[in-house]
Write a structure and sequence with these properties.
There is one protein chain. The chain has 142 residues and is α/β, with parallel strands linked by helices. The chain has a domain at 15-64 and 96-139: Ribosomal protein L13 (Ribosomal Protein L13p, Chain: A). Helix content is 29%, strand content 18%. The chain has helices at residues 25-37, 68-71, 89-95, 97-106, 113-119, and strands at 15-19, 53-57, 73-77, 84-88, 122-124, 137-139. A four-stranded parallel sheet has the order 5-2-1-6, with helices on one face. Strands 3-4 form a two-stranded antiparallel sheet.
Length: 142
């Protein structure tokens, strides 16, 4: 038995369209990670980028369960004393809805150069308009 590793020229990358309207954030993010990594393809290799490009629209209409809108916080630290900034999920959805999906997906990707390359193939937009009309987008049922 031989294990075949796909050549970079053999890897076919499609463009997928995900509509976030009415979808639950975590479940949608895990489906996006499967598409980005290429786990849905028979040529999946853990250490190679075999996945597709993913375009997410309507990020502002994503749903969450429970009390996450008020209780979940996103924190960042400037490095200075008293430089901790905390923003709730409700505020983040109001100001930057794209970042909510980006951070959920980024947390599920592997650390290191491969994860950074995979994250670069994710395009998230708050509304239904996007500049990727030239690519043949395949809608993802979800």
């Amino acid at each position: 038995m031989n294990t075949t590793i796909p050549d970079v020229k053999q890897i076919r990358r499609d463009w997928r369209l995900v509509d976030a309207e009415g979808q639950i954030l975590g479940r949608m993010a895990s489906r996006i990670v499967v598409l980005l990594r290429g786990k849905h393809k028979p040529t999946y290799t853990p250490h190679l980028d075999t996945g597709d490009f993913v375009v997410v629209i309507n990020a502002e209409r994503v749903k969450v369960t429970g009390h996450k809108l008020a209780q979940k916080t996103y924190k960042r630290y400037s490095g200075y004393p008293s430089g901790l900034k905390a923003v709730t999920l409700a505020d983040m959805l109001r100001t930057h809805p794209e970042r909510v999906i980006q951070q959920a997906v980024k947390g599920m990707l592997p650390d290191g150069p491969l994860g950074r390359r995979l994250f670069g193939k994710l395009k998230v937009y708050a509304g239904s308009k996007h500049p990727h009309h030239a690519q043949p987008l395949q809608p993802v049922a979800g």
